[in-house]
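Hello again, I could really use a second opinion on something today. For a while now I've been wondering how a particular protein folds. Please have a think about how the structure follows from the sequence. Here's the protein in full, and shout if anything looks odd to you:

***
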Amino acid sequence: MAQFDVHEVKTGRYLVDCQADLLSHLESRITIPLEPASERPPAATRLHPHFAVQGRTMVLATHLAGAIPTRSLGRKVSSLIEYEYEIKAALDVLISGI
């Protein structure tokens, strides 16, 4: 489990683990759901960046960020580490509005 790993949960949906690796000893992780671009209307690009995961275009639903128990993460299917700055920028928009 690492920051910006993408996990598939039991419902078949994807979650991005956004919590710093330094805090891996905690029993919960801050995650953001990924939703199919076809299911989400166009939104603010910085708040909802798009990524390709498992061959599908997915939207980071930043406004739905939250904590879940680590045991609920499911299996890792991908990593978005190369999009670290875009994900952190989306969190900045959510938290500070900039």
Q: What stands out?
A: Residues 84-96 form the longest helix (13 residues). Strands lie at 5-8, 14-17, 28-36, 50-53, 56-60, 66-69, 75-79.
